[in-house]
User: Fold these one by one.
Assistant:
Number 1:
Amino acid sequence: MKLGWTALAATILVLLATSAFIVFRASQMLRLFETAISPSSVTADADEAIKKLDAYHGKRATDLLVRIAIADREFVDDRQDLAIRLTGEKNDPSALATLASLLQPHIELGRREAVAKALQKSICTTECVLSILHYEERLWCCHSDQESVLALISDQSTRSYIEKEHGEMLALLDTALVRNGPSTVQVLRDVYGLGSPSPSPFALHVVASLHLRRACPALAKSEYQLLDSSQKDEIEGLLKDLNCTGDNKH
């Protein structure tokens, strides 16, 4: 009986110790998060807090890094870029999909670049691909392929640097779309009508610019059902350029 009570007491102590550790761990992570997210924290302190937070394993730590990355605050340093880079190294597709929501023309170029680089680290889900395509569609149809800040800059070397960075970011995003081809085609089908009688011009643009042979079956299906005859030559040209064989068309 005495041994039974001893074992019970030991179990209770272990449970209490485990609970205390979990609470302590959570409080430590929250303290690091608050340091990193505070605009009053100097860069060195914020960066150190982010790196220490990254050392923790588990969803809670990743979620806090993501919250730092997407926070709508005007920091004068690149702490959010650091949070994005470290999140990308977590190999968490769900976290990457959240980061991809930062792909908006009004978000500063540095953060968009950091996101584009992070997307090279892991799987880009359909939600992630949707964010990339939505961003690229806005540039394609509405905002032109330039940074709005260029209108305020007259120095040619600075303009050239920004244009180069912008171009490299778009190239990385295209790489992510190609590497995650099945998800890209799925979004082009579900959202942009590829494979339907009325494929959007943007869907055809994406297939052409990425040389996306995986899209051949959907492209052929659109050709067969096409409602707008003005798209016929473009789709036939794409089928030829992509070398879509008879097997691809079924």
Number 2:
Amino acid sequence: MQGRADQTSPGVWHGIATSRLIKFAPIHAVLIALVTALALWQDWQYDEVWTFNAVKDQSAADLLQYTHFTFANHQVVNSLYFKWLQETGCSHAFFFRLLSLLSFVVFLVANDRLLKILNLHRSLILLIAVAPYLVYFSLGRGYGPALASFSLAMLCLFRKSSNPGSLNGYGFIFFGVFSMLSIFSFLYGYMALLMIYLYRIRKTRRYVHLFVQVMLSITAMAYVYHAGSIVNESDPYIIGTDRLFRNGTLGSVLHWLTHVKGDSGFEGSKLLKIAFLSTAGLTLLSAFKWRQKKDISTSDEAILLFALCAPLVFMVAAHLLFGAQYPLQRAVMYLVYLGLLLLAVATRHYTRLLHGIPVVLILLFSVFTNSHHFAELLLPSLKTALALTGDAPLLVMSHNPNVQHINQLHKIKAPTQLLQSSNDQQIQEWLGTRSTCYLLLPENAVNKFDLNVVEETNCRDGQVLIKHSRE
């Protein structure tokens, strides 16, 4: 790790960040409050309901062995957590999201400590936390626990120790393994960190500890490979691609970072993406002082750059050797996390205010990316939409199980009054037999049918509730 005494002066960014106006504790509290609000008031999401229904009739052994639930939606740690909650009788969405919410608290604490080790100001937690992956800490999915565990592994790694028998050594192995068990595609990220760890302890004589840690890692990787193979063979909907760059892993990450929902023109702007890449790239290049070091393994920048690039090499190898698809967006959110950490380290070398543009730019994009999740809380929920229909028949146009699930939990409408279909002909025939009814449609499907719209209500999750009458 980079020596602390000979670092470049922190420059302008540090001067701004150390202002008395910026306090860490309120930032920390506000972030937790925002994510808690999402966890409390968001509707059940598609993937959450899928997992909820899929684990009902399965044992823990079935879930571990991928016996029946063989889709990528089965994230084993999260599925086991869902199963445990179901056995306790819980049904409120918040409790199924509590593991992710607690993971966010862990994520903030781990990165606060990491920023301190890296001699960075605590306010940079905003850059790292307010990222496109923020919303996943409010959902009952495996991504929050995976990223929190990955950040704890990073913390253990940067607490420089050449003794594999230390708490840091075993902590690194445990949290790294837990991250890839939570989300299998984190395997590539953990492999990169493991290489750095093994290089650091290469001169150790604690062979027993080293053997135990290597065997734990190999066993976990073998399990991930076995279960991942089952998923790849069974899941036709798996989110992956045969490309690494354009329309592939890196392209999806760039789109995720520069995506602003609701404005397709702005979202697809090539100029915006070029500006984003060039400003961030130039800033990172200016920070690479590790060339002056005799041992680049002691450089924070070099360690983060290796951790960021090595997973891409492993993805290419897995694709060529085993036919594995390249993961997209949220499946490689650790790449975004590592990139933001690298950008944060680059702020140590800022000498002009102009150099802070990438940090501000990325933070703004992240705010835009997350803003629509909070804006949706102002719209009627799907539960409210169900209640608005009263005793009238309701047709839901979607494969999405959310509405059925919410209805089953709250018993708002009788089954005979609720029909779920994605077949256009069936929907048209259903409309022809009713004088007055309601339809819950995706926004882009409203104009597909000949409707006499009496009332129209925009709801969450991009849905529109329409009252239709032939009279």
Number 3:
Amino acid sequence: MNNIGIDQWILIMLALLTLLFGTGLLFRFKSRHKKEEKSLSSDQKSAVRKKRGLIQLSPKISVGDFMDISLRWDNKIRITVLDIVQDKFDVTGSEKELDCVDLEISIPPMIFKGVSLYGGKYTKEVALGRYRIPTSKFSDERLPSLYTYSTGKDSFDFLRIFAVHINRHAMQVVLDIFYCNR
């Protein structure tokens, strides 16, 4: 699939989410997701927004640590922060070195049906299940984001991850994680 096709899919998915959210067609947040709120620190609990089948987290994760997000059917997404590095990206016609986070992401195939993560223009897949993303210092959040989605007869799942802030001195990363299910 070429980049034009991916951009079109992103726009379609975002339009669909906007339509579903705006019309109230998404189901309310279910109690099965309460496990993940209990596993968060007090800083992270304040960053959780739950409404109509949506989860939005802004966790602060140290290098070497991981975060599990509980999903339906006792599945979970595991996001591990491996390292903070600098990498070159072609930004507006010139290469710039940007602070990036190396993530290892484990997604249950039962939920996302074996689909891998897609990345925006400023993301790199460095190995199978390992991704490098810069901070979201762009006006378009799609560019440094990782995302995936899955649809079924009676279900819809969407996941988006991007780095909000990278603290090289404390070796910590603040991520923005958005998960939607129906």
